[in-house]
Amino acid sequence: MLLDCNTKMQRRLLFFFCWLLFLDLSRTVNPGCSCIIYSSRYNPQGGTFTSPDFPNHYPTNIDCLLYTFHGRQNEIIELTFHHFHTFSAFPNCTRGDSLKVFLHVEPSSTGVSEYTPWSSLLCGSFQDIPRVLYSSGSTLVFEFHTESASAKTNNTAAGFSGTFRFIDKRIFETDGKLTPNKMCDYHFISSQFTPQYGRFYSPRYPSFYPENIRCSYQFRARMKERIRLVFEELSLQKGDISCLNRADLIKVHDGNDPTYPTIAVLCNEDTEVEVLSTGSDLHVDFIANSKWPGKGFKASFQFQPFDDIVAEPEKVVPGAATGKSKYSLIGPAVSATTSSCDIIFNSDTTKTGIVTSPNYPNAYPARTRCRYDFQGRGKERIQITFQDFDVYRSHEDSKKCESTDSLMVYVLIDGKMEKIESFCGETQPRPLMSNGPRLLLEFRGLTSSRHIRGFKATYFFTENFGITTGKQEPSYPCAFVFNSNETVNGTFVSPNYPGFYPRDTECHYFFNGQPKERVRLHFNYFDVEGVLPCDAVSASDFVDFSNYLSRDRKYSRHCGQLQAFDVESDRSFFRLTFKSNDRLDGTGFNASYIFINEEENKTVKIPLSAASDYCYSLALIFAPVLVNLACG
């Protein structure tokens, strides 16, 4: 049966009250406001919900039909849509049939009114909506509204169907200690009385986080401990926009407050992102200033002893200049089988060294299998440059490395060690760079030959991404500043150039001239994986340009293999952003810059004014719109 809660009520004074009854939706709803309730008292295991007459077309002129889900005090509601198709006159759901969803109903309220803020407005087809929704408390409400038949032509939309269940919200409680009088500031302190690992979440997770909030998560390890974070799920906004232009983001600082260097900036959507501190403190800021919040994040933390990977005595391994001979499994894609040439290279021991195949420069033994595991910290990346490469390959395997002697390269992608490259034969590989503080080389010498030498390479734990020009800016993991009062012209390159750039990497290049200066960039070489329009749909890496810290519509994104070209700024400040995803890679770019005086049309060298210094400082601290207002 259906319960008519209140019909023909004045809209301005309309309040909807859904009492604790379980009502089965089985017939057409009359115009007016009606309520259907689902309660964990009667359905503790959950159940199903549908639009009226589903799977047939739903009725027209439904003023408001409320679906109300009531859980117990410590429960939240999970809704999963399996079918969804409503008539939509406009993409933003302002016209047509729609569902207005209320995810954050206050526990003290008796219902929702026209003044209750709604969280989502759903319309259109299944691909236009989030498949799963969560309440932040024990009540979830959505309102179904349909227009008159005269507003539609040939509409056969069947409406929606889905399932619901009640979840214990205590499984999403952050394990840290909440700071008094704060909504979402937590402390996590390692001691002999506290667990060495745990979890932390964005506010209201797994529901949408609130607008205009700032949360901090402070981690403090004991002496000779460090902190490992894994952001298992990150869902802020959809798209591949640079984190520089996102209102909602996460910044991880390698110390106990935001003044310490930034080692990670996270935005958009991602999974299994690992962050490792260099010391015993780590500070995480979650900043949410957008109008449409996302689901947020769930993450885990672990306090790790410094020596947890070098507990065994060091062994002498022929052919390896530096490292520990214990192998630690860091991903399911790699076998756990160990051998006498399995070596760990840790940045605590040394920042650079030599790695070789066994017995180099003599032939390596047949049936050799070695793993070289490089483990850094903070924003360190591992760069490998080869001095010699000569491994056995038969004529039958002249084009592939899978069935012959080879060196395989693995990096951490989505929490697993994924192979990104294989090298074989005599061709010396380009320089390699990891996408994070971990990299694994696996050498497989199946056949060998007395005429081959194996390989020799130098490794570096570097924080500059292989970029040696400009001044590195600590406010971002990868950012470089070029000031005209220091150098009026010079060169700059993509990370790890001329080798393949690392995946999952975002780098910024800031050019600061004087008020009457402009900067001209000339790209001698450009190879950035992607196809026009260089967006997320085409899974493209890209380079974009802007006269502001924010986005600039004047410039389109650049990707693909391009001939030499120039780009010139309209202002004294210019920004280039390079962003790669986790799919494919290229060799990046090699470019030069020159500051030009627009009046005299020649290069100048003038000290930076106080105004330029001030504007640039604002750009590093505040939102772009504030900088534009302050600095024009």
Task: Lay out the secondary structure.
Blueprint: E1 3-6, E2 15-16, E3 33-39, E4 47-50, E5 64-70, E6 75-85, E7 98-102, E8 112-113, E9 120-122, E10 132-134, E11 139-145, E12 159-168, E13 177-178, E14 186-189, E15 197-201, E16 213-220, E17 225-235, E18 248-253, E19 262-266, E20 269-276, E21 281-288, E22 296-305, E23 343-346, E24 352-356, E25 368-375, E26 381-390, E27 406-413, E28 416-423, E29 432-433, E30 438-445, E31 454-462, E32 471-472, E33 479-483, E34 489-493, E35 506-512, E36 517-528, E37 542-546, E38 560-562, E39 565-568, E40 573-579, E41 588-597, H1 610-621, H2 624-631
Parallel strand pairs: 3-5, 14-16, 23-25, 33-35
Antiparallel strand pairs: 1-3, 2-8, 4-12, 5-11, 6-10, 6-12, 7-9, 7-11, 13-14, 15-22, 16-21, 17-20, 17-22, 18-19, 18-21, 24-31, 25-30, 26-29, 26-31, 27-28, 27-30, 32-33, 34-41, 35-40, 36-38, 36-39, 36-41, 37-40
Helix pairs in contact: 1-2
